[in-house]
């Protein structure tokens, strides 16, 4: 199991950050994704640009405060939680991701992969909010 927690500040209102992060119908800003398929209120599937699918189940949705879900694909399972807080003219977002590799040989690669993924996601989010 690998846990990665990162806190970032965005100079935008919490409502704007929340809406951007949770709007699964508008994910073109995500440079790692080809598309997102919404199955119902709590289930969705993300497809990478190479077509790899990851299944998600929303476990908490407290508007403008907390969004959390579990995730699973052929290589891993885990969870993600985002805590949204208003902070001095903007928003503080704390993302905590926990990942379990399904294959023993993947364990050494998970920490680096997770850090790169989180950085990419937050860089993409920063660019989208700046528009």
UniProtKB/TrEMBL annotation:
Pfam families: Polyketide_cyc2 (PF10604). It comes from the Bacteria. CDD domains: SRPBCC. InterPro entries: Polyketide_cyclase/dehydratase, START-like_dom_sf. This is SRPBCC family protein. It comes from Pseudoflavonifractor gallinarum.
């Amino acid at each position: 199991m690998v846990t990665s927690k990162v806190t970032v500040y965005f100079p935008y209102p919490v409502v704007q950050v929340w809406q951007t992060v949770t709007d699964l119908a508008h994910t073109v800003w995500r440079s790692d994704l080809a598309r997102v398929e919404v199955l119902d209120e709590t289930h969705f599937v993300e497809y990478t640009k190479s077509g790899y699918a990851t299944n998600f189940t929303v476990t908490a949705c407290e508007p403008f405060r907390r969004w959390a879900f579990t995730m699973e694909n052929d290589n891993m399972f885990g969870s993600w939680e985002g805590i949204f807080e208003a902070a001095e003219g903007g928003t503080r977002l704390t993302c905590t991701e926990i990942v379990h590799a399904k294959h023993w040989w993947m364990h050494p690669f998970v920490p680096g992969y997770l850090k790169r993924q989180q950085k990419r996601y937050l860089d993409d989010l920063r660019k989208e909010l700046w528009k």
